Amino acid sequence: MSKPMSEFDLIQRYFTRPTPGAVLGVGDDAALLRIPDGMELAVSTDMLVSGTHFFPDAAPYLLGHKTLAVNLSDLAAMGAQPRWATLALSLPQADEAWLRNFSAGFFALAEQHGVELIGGDTTRGPLNLCVTIMGVAPQGAALRRDGAKAGDDIWVSGTLGDAALALAHLQGRIVLAAEELAACAQRLHQPEPRVALGLALRGMAHSAIDVSDGLLADLEHILECSKVGAEVQFEALPRSPAMRSLSPSPSPAGGRGELMQRCLLAGGDDYELCFTAPAARRKEIEDISRQTGLPLARIGVIVAGSGCMVRAADGSVIKIEDSGYDHFR
């Protein structure tokens, strides 16, 4: 009978990789980092909890990808270059097949973005995954939430609401065609952090945030930090073919149109970037879209005041019942 794998065996086998960008990586009481001259360190932490952020039977490879992706998305919103991460795992058991696939998904995305795993922790318990990510940006160049100005255009990358639409299918609230489900499910389980976009927006965008809890909820953080308001045009919100297949009307209670409205405005897990920039930079932003191959949609404008107003195509104000996800509401 084989000897059970120890905590240290687990770390050595599945989570120890070379870390040439760190002075000292996995294996000591703490990692040692050297920050390049003239740079600031950006640090963010996100936790994914089984049953709250993902289904308990989620595919481990995709879960490994998403565990890192949601953190990379935070650095993208700051315009920071990803460098290092730590990973803390609470595991019900040391399942080697699960660990092999989880770590493969995690490191595949890490290598894509030049991220080195430099430490973390493991313990036995309910399945929880926590990453702290670190990146660098030139001093004073990081994107922030508090720089939006009246007259700024509001932009969003990619398409909105697809992850929420996939979740609605999985929960039995709607039935998507197989092709639509496959596309939306990829957005839910394997989001692509917009790191290249965040880097390109340094010195151009006045403010930025990643859309994780829902467009309106996250845009509201910019508005509160910047002490401004916003007007958003509902018809300008970028949507996928699956989203366009729903009713075009955002108003019928209980219908597919209501679901579309909620997914677009309040659906979580998009991990797109929402940012504001002066109208004079529109051509440059359109050039970034072409260079990165990432669609960028201008969805509204920053105004004086507070709060966000969403307008329909006829100019009427759309009543919003739910602006996004909150863990404690």
Could you describe the 3D structure shown?
This protein is α+β, with helices and mostly antiparallel strands. It folds into two domains: about 130 residues, PurM-like, N-terminal domain (60s Ribosomal Protein L30, Chain: A, 2-Layer Sandwich), CATH 3.30.1330; about 160 residues, PurM-like C-terminal domain (Phosphoribosyl-aminoimidazole Synthetase, Chain A, domain 2). The chain is built from ten helices and ten strands. Strands 6-8-5-9-7-10 form a six-stranded mixed sheet, sandwiched between helices. Strands 1-4-2-3 form a four-stranded mixed sheet, covered by helices on one side. The longest helix is centred in the first third of the chain and has 19 residues. The protein is globular.
Q: What would the keywords be for this entry?
A:
10 helices; 10 strands; four-stranded mixed beta sheet; six-stranded mixed beta sheet; 2 domains; 329 residues
